[in-house]
Amino acid sequence: MASTRQNPxxxxxxxxxxxxxxxxxLSEEEILPLPQWQPGDAPMASPEISDMQPxxxxxxxxxxxxxxxxxxxxxxxxxxxxxxxxxTQDTGExxxxxxxxxxxxxxxxxxxxxxNSGRPPAAPPHTPTSASxxxxxxxxxxxxCSVSPASELLIDPLGLIxxxxxxxxxxxxxxxxxEARFPLYIVxxxxxxxxxxxxxxxxxxxxxxxxxxxxxxxxxxxxxWRARLFLPKLAHDSASDAFLKExxxxxxxxxxxxxxxxEQLHRFCVELSTRLFWLEKLCPIATTTEKPxxxxxxxxxxxxxxxxxxxxxxxxxxxxxxxxxDPVLRWVVFVLCLLAAIGTxxxxxxxxxxxxxxxxxxxxxxxxxxxxxxQRLGGAFSGGAGAWTRFR
Amino acid sequence: MKCPHCSTTIEARQPACHKxxxxxxxxxxxxxxxxxxLERLTDAAHCLRLADRHKAEMTLDDLERAFPQVFVAFYFxxxxxxxxxxxxxxxxxxxxxxxxxxxxxxxxxxxxxVVDPAAGTVGTAIGYALESxxxxxxxxxxxxxxxxxxxxxxxxGAIEAAATSVSDLLRxxxxxxxxxxxLSPGPHAGSSAADxxxxxxxxxxxxxxxxxxxSRQRR
Lengths: 392, 219
Ligand SMILES: [Zn+2]
Description:
The complex is a heterodimer of chains A (392) and B (219). Chain A has 392 residues and is of the alpha/beta class. In chain A, 46% of the residues lie in helices and 9% in strands. Chain A has helices at 2-31, 45-50, 79-89, 96-109, 112-116, 139-147, 163-179, 208-211, 233-238, 241-256, 261-282, 295-298, 326-362, and strands at residues 135-136, 154-155, 184-189, 193-194, 215-220, 228-232, 299-302, 364-367, 386-390. In chain A, helix 3 (79-89) packs antiparallel against helix 4, helix 7 packs parallel to helix 11 (261-282) and helix 10 (241-256) runs antiparallel to helix 11 (261-282). Chain A is rod-shaped, with a radius of gyration of 45 Å. In chain B, the strands form two sheets. Chain B has a four-stranded mixed sheet. A two-stranded parallel ribbon of chain B has the order 1-4. In chain B, helix 5 runs antiparallel to helix 6 (155-170). Chains A and B meet through strand 8 and strand 9 of A and helix 2, helix 3, strand 6, helix 4 and helix 5 of B. The structure holds zinc ion (ZN).
């Protein structure tokens, strides 16, 4: 009976306790003021979130937030830039604070690569450099090119291409040089730079270009249409202008099929290598008299006006070095051909003259007069006229 | 003219050498007095290659076509040691019936060359008609043309050289006449020379020979 009398009391206490607790919580919230979120406050959350430090556990992982020494990071990989699209996608319909926290936490706890997966960094479209903005590479660049080892077929003194592409290209160029008659050197330029008109390619690669017939490609990053191709004179003269024009255009077209600057260079090289193999088949067989080709008289640039897009201001109309030996060579060839023609004509004339003479003689009988001599030594037909000798 | 045997000068109509007694009759102990049938090229020494022989035949054809009266014959073989090739050539031209395409050629217009490859000697004899036209040094010049080839055992080349030399020597002495088309026999023509009472061998045509020996008539 006692328990039954206490139960109503406890029940009454419980009923009273609920409103009292609510009153107590309400009073506590009034004591601790929390930020009051207003619709226009969402962007302000970002700096605060990005300033949050990762939990101590993540200290073993690479820092995902930019530190004071992370200026080398590309803007496209900075976490704040990653966050920006997520935040800007939010509208007032959702809770700005909640979405903001969730995104910020993901960026903080997930490795960067996972956040970037399936979403390649969007490179800004390259604007062709106008002709007036093009500048010659400086002397230091040329010096670095000249001291580059002859064995390094990829000359990129400024480190303009990524390490991965550099390895790929070096392997590819080495393979090409082993299989092809003319090794291919590639000089990588900045997108707004060009080779000076008086650049001496023969000194590049520690003179490796001058030691043997080589092809040289001067390639401005991101502007394949301004690439300049220099071929050994033998190869240049062996192919028709149309062939060389198509060669260059095919390389540019292949390169331009990719928006990635690295991929452009890679595609350009692969296409160029293939075309150079074709070009070799047009070249006469090498002889032992084939001399090492210096740049000036022997390297000739492939010129193709059509290869440059309309927006590209610089075309490849300039021929770098006029072949000074050509007029003399042409005269020698002309004289030799003339002499050969004269000799052939004389030979034909003499042969026909001999034949006609032989025909004439065949149609001619030579009649000797008849005279009689008195017999001698008892011979009816010969009197012993003659001679004899030893031949051994 | 010199004696073929001792090189003593021989006068016209002299029947034998005054010094050594050389004459055609003196050759009878070696060859007899019979006529012998000879090809233009007689290779008793078997020193001519087939190609050389074919080429030489064509050369001799050309020569005989250009000089219808003339023939050149060659004998390659070993000779008796006591005879020189000129003596043998002298006997052959007087006792040989040479098979030439034109059987009507007379031996007076012949040149006979005798080569002894083993002994390394070469001699020649020419008929009276050619002797009367050519200089006395002509036979020597013919031999001189042959010697370079003979010294290299190029017997075909020696034949070519001799034929060329003979042509060159005779052409200035000859009169050029165009060769007319060969005559075709008419309906009443005979089928052989015998039908016309002609002897096919070169015999009996020399009227000055007062005593033509019947034995020279080979057939
Ligand atoms: Zn005598």
